[in-house]
Amino acid sequence: MSSSLSELYKIVFELSDGAFVLLESQDLNILDCSHVFCKLLERSKEELLHQPLKNFCEDSSFLMTDVHHFSHLEPSLEEIVFKCPNGLSVKTHCSIKVISLHTKRYVFLSFYETQNSDPEVIRYLEQQNRELQKINRSKSEFIANISHELRTPLTTVLGWPEIILDSQGVS
Q: Could you please report the per-residue DSSP string of 102-147?
């Protein structure tokens, strides 16, 4: 690869808002990764480079698939769960594409986070949901009570003119 193309590649890789990783095809070691990928795994680039991707996955069974399997397909989509240093998990979907350049093969992965398995986030969201349900019940009770309180006097107010009109024989 020419030096200007190599520089362009580096710039594009680092400026992208996506989580990307480039693997060598033999043992799927990480050759390069975007800063977004590092952030997703909560690790520095130095911790990730030259390490097998499977070291950071909870279930790396799809990584055991022969890389040639991917090369015959259109870009495939796989689910991967990464383990973070704090013990939490990040569920992602990843698009896989095998790239052949000269005589070498590389695997390019782009990731899409699909679920945050952080127990603290889940607890917070569940608490917010309970509070919103409580507020919704209070609103429903208030409307029911106010409706009853308004209907009772209105029935009386509307009932008397009807009685007077009926007693006078007005229809």
A: TTEEEEEEEEEEEEE--HHHHHHHHHHHHHHHHHHHHHHHHHHHHH
pLDDT for the residue numbered 18: 80
Q: pLDDT tens across 46-91, in order? A: 999 999 988 888 876 666 555 555 554 455 567 788 888 877 788 7
- The encoded tokens of residue 112 equal 């899409």
Which residue, 67, 74, 64, is CA-closest to 95?
A: 74
Residue whose pair of structure tokens reads 């790396």 in the numeric block: 60
Q: Both tokens of residue 91?
A: 């569920």
- Cβ-based neighbours of 78, under 8 Å, separated by 6 or more: 62, 93, 94, 96
From CA 101, how far away is CA 153, in angstroms rounded?
84
Tell me the one-letter amino acid at 3: S
DSSP secondary structure of the chain: --HHHHHHHHHHHHH-SSEEEEEETTT-BEEEE-HHHHHHHT--HHHHTTSBGGGGBS--GGGGS-HHHHHTSSSEEEEEEEEPTTS-EEEEEEEEEEEEETTEEEEEEEEEEEEE--HHHHHHHHHHHHHHHHHHHHHHHHHHHHHHHHHHHHHHHHHHHHHHHHHTT--
CA-CA distance, 106 to 13, in Å (whole number)? 15
